[in-house]
User: Which sequence fits this backbone?
């Protein structure tokens, strides 16, 4: 089957990698379907892209923010027109079902409109000076060339969370998409270019992490790094950035807990558990991977959940009837297999799933059966480490306090959920769960773009995407003083009496 070869986008030109190497993007549901061929880039390509971004920065930073915002708005409109075809291409490149890839494109549309609005805000402050005839104010300034490294599970949404706030703030960008999902970044940037983004303002360099990602992080011309991915790689990225005193936003893994108390609406909690644990085939940083059950409802919840999981339709996400698609690649399948073995060795009880699906309709894809483990203890590895697959652990507890301890007893702190009708417990959970996000009577997934997104502990390093937190990362504050007294006035000295 013939396929398209995509080149890097550098300074508005489509150029092959200087390495001369390429790689294939293959549909995880059907290995016969080659989505495209992409450049396996290296450090020299990053050098070129950073130089192009630095050149474009000279003029882009001077474009008034409301004008930059108009380009984002137009980009949002183009994305909306092409939502269906981009969603289909995304399902082909990473596997999640069509309703979810439509949601992924919608998230980019929402972010475009939201950040377009920020073009007429980007507020700073004015404040009285301590001296006479002097104005004092703070203004947001762009950072410069920003390097962006994205994961594969939200192939358009996550690049949009990075690119759109960076652009409205006046930065120029070099983005390295995940090697499994470069096409969705191309689609996003195609809309930006058609919307009027000048050449060189966004540059795309595709390739593998150590070859193309690492040189972007260490490049002296890159003034800030925005990374989303695993905690393991995030640690390397953060250390490299720190060595150059480079601001670095790290959004990393999760091991998200849903607590179901004995007064919860059980049917609602089961719907939430199914969506939270098996949406995106469990490959979300916010996936519900631990369900902490009050002992009074544990047996009923478990029985009903397992029945619903057994009924899930697994297959090619392009089929509208399918509820759960494949895993993104063979490596993710192997991780799921490994954790299922670990869980059973630790004494967890396999209630359903736990195996690769490879016969018949599954023979050309990376499919894994939706899996539930019971009898899980909070300190087991299956309850502590991120699997990033369709595997959920059930943990039984005797009280809300024990549930809270289990929920918080992990190294991650991204998303959490509580199902209860007790308003006091709900507010306690909102206060006490150690996480960047807490849902009440909703699963651990479902973030909206205008709220801060990110986590505590080993999930992140204190920055936030989404909301106005994104503007804080992509701008730097400048304090400006204007003295119109025509005299030398010395702060802290001349007004001390
Ligand atoms: P990953 O860490 O393997 O890769 C992420 C990106 O980093 C890819 O583009 C990869 O090429 C690049 N990379 C790899 N090695 C690198 C290196 N040495 N230097 C620079 N870049 C390098 O993660 P993944 O498998 O793509 O994504 C899954 C992970 O992402 C999960 O841990 C998930 O929880 C996390 N995630 C977090 C969020 C969040 O916002 N907190 C959102 C989505 C995914």
Assistant:
């Amino acid at each position: 089957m013939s396929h398209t070869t995509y080149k890097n986008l550098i300074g508005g030109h489509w150029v092959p990698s200087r390495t001369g190497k390429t790689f294939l993007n293959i549909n995880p549901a059907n290995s016969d379907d080659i989505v495209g061929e992409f450049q396996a880039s290296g450090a020299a390509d990053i050098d070129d892209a950073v130089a192009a971004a630095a050149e474009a920065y000279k003029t882009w930073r001077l474009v008034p923010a409301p004008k930059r915002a108009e380009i984002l708005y137009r980009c949002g409109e183009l994305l909306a027109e092409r939502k269906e075809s981009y969603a289909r291409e995304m399902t082909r490149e990473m596997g999640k079902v069509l309703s979810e890839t439509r949601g992924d494109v919608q998230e980019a549309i929402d972010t475009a409109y939201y950040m377009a609005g920020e073009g007429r805000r980007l507020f700073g402050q004015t404040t009285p000076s301590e001296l006479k005839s002097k104005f004092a104010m703070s203004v947001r300034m762009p950072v410069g060339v920003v390097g962006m490294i994205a994961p594969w599970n939200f192939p358009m949404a996550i690049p949009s969370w990075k690119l759109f706030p960076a652009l409205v703030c006046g930065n120029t960008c070099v983005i390295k998409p995940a090697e499994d999902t470069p096409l969705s970044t191309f689609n996003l940037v195609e809309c930006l270019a058609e919307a009027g983004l000048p050449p060189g303002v966004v540059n795309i360099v595709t390739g593998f992490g150590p070859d193309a990602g690492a040189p972007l992080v260490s490049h002296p011309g890159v003034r800030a790094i925005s990374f989303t991915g695993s905690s393991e790689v995030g640690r390397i990225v953060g250390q490299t950035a720190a060595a150059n005193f480079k601001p670095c936003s790290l959004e990393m893994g999760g091991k998200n807990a849903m607590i179901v108390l004995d007064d919860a609406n059980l049917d609602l909690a089961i719907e939430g558990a199914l969506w939270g644990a098996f949406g995106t085939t469990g490959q979300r940083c916010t996936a519900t991977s631990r369900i902490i059950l009050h002992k009074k409802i544990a047996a009923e919840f478990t029985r009903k959940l397992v029945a619903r999981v057994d009924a899930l339709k697994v297959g090619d996400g392009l089929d509208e009837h399918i509820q759960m698609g494949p895993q993104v690649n063979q490596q993710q399948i192997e991780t799921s297999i490994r954790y299922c073995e670990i869980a059973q060795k630790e004494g967890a009880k396999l209630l359903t799933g736990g195996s690769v699906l490879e016969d018949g309709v599954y023979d050309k894809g990376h499919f894994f059966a939706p899996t539930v483990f019971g009898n899980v203890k909070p300190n087991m590895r299956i309850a502590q480490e991120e699997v990033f697959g369709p595997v959920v652990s059930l943990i039984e507890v005797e009280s809300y306090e024990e549930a809270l301890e289990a929920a918080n007893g992990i190294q991650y702190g991204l998303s959490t959920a509580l199902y209860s009708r007790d308003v006091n417990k709900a507010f306690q959970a909102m206060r006490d769960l150690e996480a960047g996000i807490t849902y009440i009577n909703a699963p651990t997934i479902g973030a909206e773009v205008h709220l801060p997104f990110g986590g505590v502990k080993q999930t992140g390093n204190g920055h936030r995407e989404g909301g106005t937190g994104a503007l804080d990362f992509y701008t730097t504050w400048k304090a400006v003083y204007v003295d119109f007294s025509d005299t030398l006035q010395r702060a802290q000295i001349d007004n001390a009496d």
